[in-house]
Amino acid sequence: MSDTVKKTRNGAIVYDTDIINQISDAAFVPESWPQRTLVGGALRSSGRGNTMIVSHGDQEFVLRHYVRGGLPGRIVHDTYVWMGERQTRAFSEWYLLAKLVRMGLPVPRPAAARYLRSGLVYRADLLTVRIPGIRSLADRISDSPGSPVFWTGLGRGIRKFHDAGVFHADLNAYNVQVDGADRLCLLDFDRGKILQPGVWQQKSLARLHRSLNKIKGLDQRIHFRPQNWNELLEGYFSASRSA
Fold first, then answer.
1. Do β-strands 135-136 and 176-178 pair in parallel, antiparallel, or remain unpaired?
2. Which one, 125, 130, 188, 210, has least CB within 10 Å?
């Protein structure tokens, strides 16, 4: 992987020349792509409408525009305080993803990221290579139940990230994804970090547990029972015992 940085008129772009030979701000404008589709899914798994699948020929990417959530998002939609290039949301996530790919962890490969600065604030976007056939955990368990092997496999997969010190700031039933063979992949590492072991690991698991209970409350057809969570924990802690 390469991390070539190209300065633009009011910002910069970091990109992997092994994936993209030339790049400009147009790559972060959905209308510049021949094919584009808004990411969708069950139970609001499409997020805040800021993520699109874009493609040209056999190249397929996921384009995400950074927007604020919660109460701050009602006031300031998509601008962030400028604190330096490497501290921008897009560059920070791009470099973290690149590191996780080199570590062999199942995450999307970063293709490009950019920021547009305007005085003391900036806006940002991220372009990652789309992983074929993955869908959110929420979508997966809305279709059919997961076996004990499925749930313990998720637990072991999450433990691999934690053993590597990977902190995911929003581990939930949408950012946890699985492929056609039910293998885990994690998305959306905005505000993610590499940390020493600590209480954040238990808090991260608790966040996922709350998310699963929440979607179960939204739709009783969701296939999630207390036993499934116990199976996930069994996989998580058995991974530690076998290490």
1. antiparallel
2. 210
Query: Which of 157, 158, 131, 167 lies closest to 39, judged by CA?
Result: 131
Residue in the block written with tokens 């581990």: 171
Q: What is the pLDDT of residues 179-208, one digit of tens each?
A: 999 999 999 999 999 999 999 999 999 999
Going from N- to C-terminal start, the domains of the chain cover 4-129, 135-242
Residue 3 is a catalytic residue: no
Spatial distance between the Cα atoms of 12 and 74, rounded to a whole number of angstroms: 27
Contacts of residue 111, Cβ cutoff 8 Å, sequence gap at least 6: 15, 16, 19, 20, 61, 127, 128, 129
Q: Which of 78, 170, 179, 182 is catalytic?
A: 170
CATH superfamily of this structure's domain 135-242: Transferase(Phosphotransferase) domain 1 (1.10.510.10)
Q: Is the pTM of this model over 0.85?
A: yes
